[in-house]
Structures are given as structure tokens and as C-alpha cells.
């Protein structure tokens, strides 16, 4: 069951696309929230991406976690059947 389609947050989940330094460390509660709400997308910024080869998208379960720092086009109408 899904509790949300999209979660939009400033910071990333802890351990997923976060930084090692304290200001860029993700929130520990977000992985739990993703597991509970089961959204299609968790969209965040805050962690700067300067290298275009660096991955901006990861997944946790069936949720796409996307760093949109700077800018990023996200297709929200993709095939999301679960």
C-alpha cells in the first residue's frame, strides 16, 4: 500500500546520496519514512553535484530517490505500476 506518491524534501535520506560532512548528512528518519509511505519518488536537493558523471538517482525498495540539486528534469508520468 502506498501512503504518498511523491515526497519532496530539502535533504536526502541518511546513507543514500548524502555527504560525509555534518551539514550534508541526510536525515536518519527518511529511510524509515520511505519504507512506511512507499512513494514512487523521493526528491531532494541540498547535496551539491558538480560532476555530471555522478549518479543522481538511486532506489530504495520501489522508490526512486532523486537529487535535483541545481536542476534536473524528472518524468513523473513514467510507468509506475506496483
Task: Looking at this protein, list some descriptive labels.
82 residues, alpha/beta, 11% helix
- Unreliable spans are none
Strand content: 15-25%
What structural class is derived from the secondary structure elements?
Answer: alpha/beta
Radius of gyration: 12 Å
- Into how many domains do the coordinates divide? 1
Shape: globular
Helical fraction: 10-25%
How many angstroms does the end-to-end distance come to? 9 Å
Total strands: the figure is 4
The number of distinct helices, counting runs of at least 4 residues, comes to 1
Q: Describe the biggest sheet? A: 4 strands, mixed
- Please state the average pLDDT score: 86
Spatial arrangement of strands, main beta sheet: 1-2-4-3
Order of helices and strands: EHEEE
Summarize the structure in words.
It is a single chain. A four-stranded mixed beta sheet has the order 1-2-4-3. It is an alpha/beta fold and 82 residues long. Helix 1 (29-37) links the parallel strand 1 and strand 2 (41-44). It has one domain. It is globular, with a radius of gyration of 12 Å. The protein starts with 5 loop residues before the first strand and ends in a 15-residue tail after the last strand. The chain has one helix and four strands, in the order βαβββ. The longest helix has 9 residues, at 29-37.
